[in-house]
């Protein structure tokens, strides 16, 4: 029992109210009594009580109205109903309205005492649950963003500060530093968290496709556009739109983006109807936009529009103290995913991981840890389980090429295949596989990505690198 609990007692029978109030005060409860619905509402406006005890008949007023008002103003306040006219239907109606319990007059002291104690305890549990929910909300979106570095801790503070603002946020950092995760964390901690989070990799799409992707298109906008299609801005309405690699936007696209970021209005490709959107826009780049502005490659007015809040993510090589923290995290995740019992890396392997420069940053570290867990030969991982670029060692393994040309060999020390780099040698078959899959799925990129078991952003980048353009993306004459 909470001896400091506050109770609002509402009953039009003044004698009964005074008697009950005196009895409860002797039990060290704080009691305030009123006799009408209006007086009860006035009291609830001034104070949030732990418990409301009310009769269902308040003269000409209805106690159900008071229950509804209380639950609207103070959802966590417990409500105890007392009445001399209880029926099964009345009890059900009271519980549905939000009452914790219903007692019938004349009241029995022990029954009333137990009901009050249970109602106050329910309020306490509700408050504890709300505190826990708020604590979880404060961590929402940040579960996998780990750092002890003071610069990253400042980033976390900025995320909290700007989460609920509508102002644009520009995230700057090298590839693999976690720009997408930061954008998702801002969204998850904002009042828009229940709305959509829509991500677009601007650099992975040609200009014509990017315009259709962002703003949508109407039927007939270009060859193959057989129906209207909503754009990412439409899809992000009520939520957050994340535009990655914004520095790759062409001058023409920059003009269109400037307008929508100023007015939050746009027209779909090939259409005249203006769409309005309510979306928070977060942008990211791995380039120096100030230099791009100086050179004229990026519009100055657009830069000022998007650079309201700039979050700069330091590369992993500048925060070596985070390496072991991240290694432990990725190791646990990878081991659970693979179903392996891994104790960790030995001292020599940890030293190698800490000494490496990590050009691919956190993403590269995650991939290398996952690789070690998959290929490791024992519960303790060693430098032998790390790739040569991390350890500084070279591999002497030589693989025979297909039997059709047995003289061809791949020497991993020099990374050459008949005078070509491994990447160059693999481009032709990779291009053919992707092209066949695109054709078989009628150039549906989502279906193609699913069939190839890669995400759409990766597919877009591969299409761009390999020169695979959608033949339908020709404007209708």
Task: Summarize this structure as a short list of keywords or feature phrases.
alpha/beta; Rossmann fold; 477 residues; 4 domains; 20 strands
Verbal overview:
Helix content is 46%, strand content 15%. The protein is built from 19 helices and 20 strands. It has helices at 14-25, 37-46, 63-73, 88-97, 109-139, 150-162, 179-188, 207-215, 232-235, 251-263, 289-295, 300-306, 321-338, 347-355, 361-375, 388-391, 422-440, 445-452, 456-466, and strands spanning 6-10, 30-34, 51-55, 57-58, 61-62, 78-83, 101-104, 169-172, 197-201, 240-244, 265-266, 275-276, 280-285, 309-312, 344-345, 380-381, 398-400, 409-411, 416-417, 420-421. Strands 2-1-3-6-7 form a five-stranded parallel sheet, sandwiched between helices. Helix 17 (422-440) crosses helix 18. The longest helix has 31 residues, at 109-139. The model is unreliable at 396-417 (pLDDT under 50).
């Amino acid at each position: 029992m909470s001896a400091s609990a506050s109770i609002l007692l509402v009953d039009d029978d003044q004698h009964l109210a005074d008697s009950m109030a005196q009895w409860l005060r002797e039990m060290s409860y704080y009691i305030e009594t009123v006799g009408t619905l209006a007086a009860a509402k006035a009291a609830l406006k001034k104070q949030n009580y732990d418990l409301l005890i009310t009769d269902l008949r308040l003269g000409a007023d209805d106690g159900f109205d008071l229950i509804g008002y209380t639950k609207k103003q103070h959802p966590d306040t417990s409500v105890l109903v007392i009445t001399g006219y209880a029926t099964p239907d009345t009890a059900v109606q009271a519980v549905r309205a939000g009452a914790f319990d219903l007692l019938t007059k004349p009241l029995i002291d022990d029954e009333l005492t137990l009901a009050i104690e249970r109602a106050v305890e329910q309020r306490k549990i509700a408050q504890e649950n709300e505190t826990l929910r708020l604590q979880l909300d404060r961590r929402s979106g940040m579960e996998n963003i780990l750092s002890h570095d003071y610069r990253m801790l400042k980033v976390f503070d900025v995320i909290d500060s700007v989460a609920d603002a509508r102002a644009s946020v520009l995230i700057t950092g090298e590839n693999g530093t976690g720009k997408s995760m930061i954008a998702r964390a801002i969204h998850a901690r904002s009042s828009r968290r229940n709305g959509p989070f829509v991500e677009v990799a601007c650099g992975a799409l040609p200009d014509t496709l990017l315009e259709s992707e962002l703003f949508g298109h109407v039927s007939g906008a270009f060859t193959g556009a057989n129906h209207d299609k909503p754009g990412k801005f439409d899809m992000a309405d009520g939520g957050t739109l994340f535009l990655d690699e914004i520095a790759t936007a062409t001058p023409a696209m920059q003009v269109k983006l400037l307008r929508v970021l100023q007015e939050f209005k746009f027209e779909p490709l090939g259409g005249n109807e203006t769409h309005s959107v309510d979306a928070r826009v977060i942008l990211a780049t791995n380039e120096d936009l100030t230099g791009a502005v100086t050179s004229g490659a990026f519009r100055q007015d657009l830069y000022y529009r998007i650079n309201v809040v700039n979050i700069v993510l330091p590369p992993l090589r500048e925060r070596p103290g985070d390496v072991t923290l991240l290694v432990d995290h990725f190791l646990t995740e990878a081991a659970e995913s693979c179903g392996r019992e891994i104790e960790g890396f030995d001292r020599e392997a940890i030293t190698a991981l800490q000494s490496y420069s990590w050009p691919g940053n956190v993403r590269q570290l995650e991939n290398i840890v996952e690789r070690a867990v998959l290929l490791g030969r024992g519960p303790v991982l060693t430098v032998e389980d790390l790739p040569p670029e991390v350890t500084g060692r070279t591999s002497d393994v030589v693989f025979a090429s297909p039997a059709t040309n047995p003289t061809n060999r791949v020497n991993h020390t020099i990374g050459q295949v008949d005078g070509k780099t491994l990447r160059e040698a693999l481009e032709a078959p990779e291009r053919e596989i992707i092209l066949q899959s695109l054709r078989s799925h009628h150039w549906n990129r989502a279906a193609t990505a699913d069939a190839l078991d890669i995400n759409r952003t990766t597919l877009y980048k591969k299409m761009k690198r390999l020169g695979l353009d959608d033949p339908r993306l020709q404007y209708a004459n």
